[in-house]
Write a structure and sequence with these properties.
Blueprint: E1 7-16, E2 19-29, E3 34-38, H1 45-53, E4 60-65, E5 68-69, E6 80-83, H2 95-105, H3 110-123, H4 139-151, E7 157-161, H5 169-186, E8 189-194, H6 197-203, E9 206-211, E10 214-219, H7 221-226, H8 231-237, E11 240-250, E12 254-258, E13 264-268, E14 277-283, E15 288-289, E16 297-308, E17 312-319, E18 322-330, H9 331-336, E19 344-349, E20 354-356
Parallel strand pairs: 3-8, 3-9, 6-7, 7-8
Antiparallel strand pairs: 1-2, 1-4, 4-5, 9-10, 11-12, 11-14, 12-13, 14-20, 15-19, 16-17, 16-19, 17-18
Helix pairs in contact: 2-3, 2-4, 3-4
The structure holds adenosine-5'-triphosphate.
Membrane topology: Peripheral membrane protein
Keywords: ATP-binding, Nucleotide-binding, Transport
Domain ABC transporter: 7-237
């Protein structure tokens, strides 16, 4: 395989008519990393990937691959390869010819390209099916053919648009592990578009969370989960509750807000200079049903819903001016002292489990 390339986006925008799909985003994906572009439908992640691939013109800004501006280059000359959601396999060609297709386009002679395609099929453990057509394969096998076809050009970066979305849940998890293993063994830069938080957490070294054409946060999965930068990230990842209110106190490293209804909440960190309101995030899996008189931050609410998820139980709680506060308890903790809808419960969390959130500048 050829060397992995760093990918850099400098103030890249995409405008379609009156819609700005991507607003001047800047991002560096270091060589050899697994990057996931994560966000809800319509946030601009596929457009960003297609601009990196060269399947979409950029309206403004620069895209660099291995420190070279590639803005005007066609896809085949960028050193990237793209794997599509639908796999885009040719139904009338056998696997060898499917995988060898881009070498044929490059003018590689038949014997050489078939030998290389067979080698790639071996790498993907598809050699026994070499003379089959795509329709004679399972979804997971088709996905591996699509990967083999993208990798045969020896790209410096592989771009994957929702590569697991066509698979059933069981196969999705299996193929996810295979993708990660492949990326690690090839040492290649991967950029993978997904709308699944779990998929991004499982795969990425770098998660880029997009919302409305902007990057909300680009960080390691650990940081995204433990230290969401914005209310959007905290809500989208589901790791934190977000409480919004008026700032009533700013101490050294602590901010206190008051929510409608008068209850006050404190959290570690400073609010933005000059701000009158702030958002506080509280870990869903660290908030507890407390024993009476136990110190700590919290409030008393009413259980609105209980969902038994197996290893954890999710409680939705309303109260103190907060409409929907989620807590995740271990099954052992919940069943040691079960509660039901309508019960009044005192909640608490440690000061370190509440943080002040920032905002994306528009
Ligand atoms: N060819 C196009 N013409 C006009 N608008 C477009 C075009 N392609 C995308 N858009 C718009 O740009 C925005 C971003 O679209 P994009 O496909 O990048 O989002 P996405 O995050 O990949 O969403 P999904 O997960 O649904 O694929 C959307 O508002 C979309 O409607």
């Amino acid at each position: 395989m050829s060397k992995a390339a760093e990918i850099e986006l400098a103030a890249v925008s995409k405008v379609y008519g009156t819609t700005t799909a991507v607003h001047a985003i800047s991002l560096k994906v270091p060589a050899g990393r697994y990057c996931c572009l994560l966000g809800p439908s319509g946030c601009g992640k596929s457009t960003t990937l297609r601009m990196i691939a060269g399947h979409e013109d950029i309206t403004d800004g620069d895209i660099m691959l291995a420190n070279k501006v590639v803005n005007g280059l066609p896809p085949a000359r960028r050193g990237t390869a793209m794997m599509f959601q639908s796999y885009a396999l040719f139904p009338h060609l056998d696997l060898v010819d499917n995988v060898a297709f881009s070498l044929k386009m490059q003018g590689v002679d038949k014997e050489k390209r078939r030998a290389e395609a067979t080698e790639m099929l071996e790498l993907m453990q598809l050699e026994p099916y070499a003379d089959r057509r795509p329709a004679q394969l399972s979804g997971g096998q088709q996905q591996r053919v699509a990967l083999a076809r993208a990798l045969i050009t020896k790209p410096q970066a592989l771009l994957l648009d929702e590569p697991l979305s066509a698979l059933d849940p069981f196969l999705k998890i299996k193929m996810r592990a295979e993708l990660k293993k492949l990326q690690t063994s090839l040492g290649m830069t991967f950029v993978h578009v997904t709308h699944s938080q779990e998929e991004a957490m499982a795969l990425a070294d770098l998660i880029v969370i997009m919302n409305d054409g902007r990057i909300e946060q680009a960080a390691s999965p650990r940081d995204i989960f433990q230290k969401p930068a914005t209310p959007f990230v905290a809500r989208f990842m589901g790791s934190h509750n977000v409480i919004s209110g008026r700032i009533v106190e700013q101490a050294d490293k602590q901010t206190t807000i008051e929510v409608a209804g008068g209850h006050r909440f404190s959290a570690l960190g400073a609010a933005e200079v000059g701000a009158e309101t702030a958002d506080i995030a509280v870990r869903t899996d660290h908030a507890r049903l407390k024993d009476a008189d136990e110190p700590g931050f919290g409030f008393t609410g009413v259980v609105a819903n209980v969902e038994d998820l197996g290893a954890t139980v999710k409680l939705s709680i309303t109260g103190a001016g907060i409409e929907d506060f989620t807590i995740l308890l271990s099954d052992a903790d919940y069943f040691a002292k079960p509660v039901k809808s309508g019960d009044a419960v005192p909640l608490s969390w440690a000061p370190a489990d509440a943080i002040v959130l920032g905002h994306v500048k528009s």
